[in-house]
C-alpha cells in the first residue's frame, strides 16, 4: 500500500512581516515550523502503516530549500521517502496553484492508494488543499476525518464530522482525506530516527521534473486569488495583570466604558 502525506512549513507565530507590495509573507525572515495539523496527518499515515503489511509512506512538501526540515521531521517520525517540490516558478501559489502543483508531484512519483492532508494550515487557513488535490487527481475526497476505523488495500472506513454530526463513511481506494487534529497525537521522534533522518536523502522536484505540469496553473501566474491590500495585524502591548475581587472589577470595567462614552 502506498500512502502520500502532504505537509508544509508555517510561521512559528504571527510577527507581521509581510511584503506590502506583493501581499506575500516574508518567510525568509520568520522562524518556521511544521504545520501542527500536518504532524497529525503524518501520524495518521504511520498508524495506518502499522496496520497494513508492506505499507510505504512518502511525504511531499512544496517549499524553498528550507522546506527540507519538514521532510527531515517526517523521517524522524518514521516516514520512508521525502519529496521537496522546489522551484522559483512555484512562488506565490494560492490554494488552487498549490493543490495543482502537489498533484503533479504526486502523479510524477507514483500511484498512491491514500493521500493524507491536515485539516488546514495555520497561515493560509483555507482547508482546501486536500479537496483540490483530490479534484486534480479525479479521486474521492473525505474531509474532517475524526477516526480511522479500518483500512486495507482496497477500501477504507472513516468517521467524519460534519456540522457536529458524525458519519461513518466507506470509500474505495484510492482517495484523499483531511484529518482533524483530534485523530491522533503526533509521536515524539526517537533519537535514533532523528539521527538517521538528518542523514537520509530526499528527492527534489523542480518544474522541469513535473513533465505534465501546466505552467499556466502554477505560482502567482496560475493563482486566481489576487491580494488587493495587506497589512500586519496589530501587536497587543504587554499589560500588567490586575488581581481584584469581582465587585471592584465590575466597577473598574464600568468606569472604563463610561470614560470611552464621554470621549466619544
Structure description:
The chain is of the alpha/beta class and 264 residues long. It has helices at 36-51, 68-77, 95-109, 129-137, 191-199, 246-263; strands at residues 2-6, 9-11, 32-34, 56-62, 81-85, 114-118, 141-151, 155-162, 165-172, 175-179, 203-205. The strands form two sheets. A nine-stranded mixed beta sheet has the order 9-8-7-10-6-1-4-5-11, with helices on both faces. A two-stranded antiparallel ribbon has the order 2-3. β7 and β8 (155-162) form a beta hairpin. α2 (68-77) packs across α5. It starts with a strand and ends with a helix.
Short description:
By secondary structure, this protein is an alpha/beta fold. The chain has six helices and eleven strands.
Instruction: Give a short account of the largest sheet.
Output: 9 strands, mixed
> SS-based structural class?
alpha/beta
| H and E string | EEEHEHEHEHEEEEHEH
Helix content: 25-40%
Strand order of the largest sheet: 9-8-7-10-6-1-4-5-11
Mean pLDDT: 88
State the helix count.
6
Give start-end ranges of low-pLDDT stretches: none
Rough shape? globular
Number of strands: 11
Q: In percent terms, what proportion of residues is strand?
A: 15-25%
End-to-end separation in angstroms reads: 66 Å
Radius of gyration: 22 Å
